[in-house]
């Protein structure tokens, strides 16, 4: 798993490359949870994530809970059909805002007031 971080318009953009499974999810959590500060805005680019296990879903749920507790936002972009299907079946899509691309996500996260 590779995680590339950058900031743009007061938003942290995290690009994940590789599978989110039992072996990689703890690394993802360790790298992303500290980014959640009060009213933080995070965009997770999952374009290069083809597989997500229950451990990966658990990381996303933890991110969502932390963001919500701190009046922050997490937007997901680039979900593959397989990952989207898993998230839909498990009800995880109800927790997250989805966007088609980075430009739209930046508009959504900066245009939404908390």
What does this 3D model show about the protein?
With 114 residues, this protein is α/β, with parallel strands linked by helices. The protein has a single domain, classed as Transcription Regulator spoIIAA. Helices cover 39% and strands 26% of the residues. It has four helices and five strands, in the order E-E-H-E-H-E-H-E-H. It has a five-stranded mixed sheet, with helices on both faces. Helix 3 (81-90) links the parallel strand 4 and strand 5 (97-99). Helix 1 runs parallel beside helix 2 (54-69). The model has no long low-confidence stretch (mean pLDDT 91).
Name the features.
114 residues, alpha/beta, Transcription Regulator spoIIAA, five-stranded mixed sheet, 5 strands
| Gross CATH architecture | 2-Layer Sandwich
How many distinct helices?
A: 4
* Low-pLDDT residue spans: none
User: Quick one: overall form?
Assistant: globular
Please report which band the strand proportion falls in: under 5%, 5-15%, 15-25%, 25-35%, 35-45% or over 45%. Answer: 25-35%
- Summarize the main sheet: 5 strands, mixed
Number of domains: 1
Count the E strands: 5
CATH topology assignment:
Transcription Regulator spoIIAA
Taken in chain order, the helices and strands follow as EEHEHEHEH
In whole angstroms, how far apart are the ends? 32 Å
Spatial strand order of the main sheet:
1-2-3-4-5
Helix percentage range:
25-40%
**What is the CATH superfamily?**
STAS domain
């Amino acid at each position: 798993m590779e995680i590339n971080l950058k900031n743009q318009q007061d938003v942290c953009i995290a690009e994940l490359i590789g599978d989110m499974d039992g072996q990689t999810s703890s690394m993802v959590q360790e790298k992303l949870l500290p980014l959640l500060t009060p009213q933080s805005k995070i965009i997770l680019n999952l374009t290069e994530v083809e597989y997500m296990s229950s451990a990966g879903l658990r990381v996303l749920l933890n991110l969502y809970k932390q963001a919500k507790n701190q009046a922050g936002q997490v937007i997901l972009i680039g979900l593959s059909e397989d990952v989207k299907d898993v998230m839909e079946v498990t009800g995880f899509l109800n927790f997250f805002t989805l966007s088609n691309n980075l430009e739209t996500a930046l508009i959504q996260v900066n245009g939404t007031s908390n």
